[in-house]
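Protein modeling request. Please complete all fields; requests missing the sequence field cannot be processed.
Requester role: graduate student
Desired output: 3D structure, token encoding
Chains: 1
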Amino acid sequence: MRTTSDERSGAVPDDAAHVWVGAALVGMGQGDTRRAEHAARTGRHVLPVGTRIEVLEVYCSRCRVPYSERACAWPCGGAALRNAVNPSG
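Delivered output (89 residues):
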């Protein structure tokens, strides 16, 4: 997964804070399989600057809760779940 701006800036992440991400559809072109093959192989697809994409869903990458005003008020349980699975870290 890519780093967030908070991670790049060196800000200390709050374990109870949600990390919101957007699931999107990105077209690979019609009939041209080179782009699709590259994306499937590398897990990446570079878009031209200024390309608009349609965001299908926004959710927390830690706990997978869908974004809503109510969800923003709840603490994220994802970090606690990961620590419970891996007690050493």
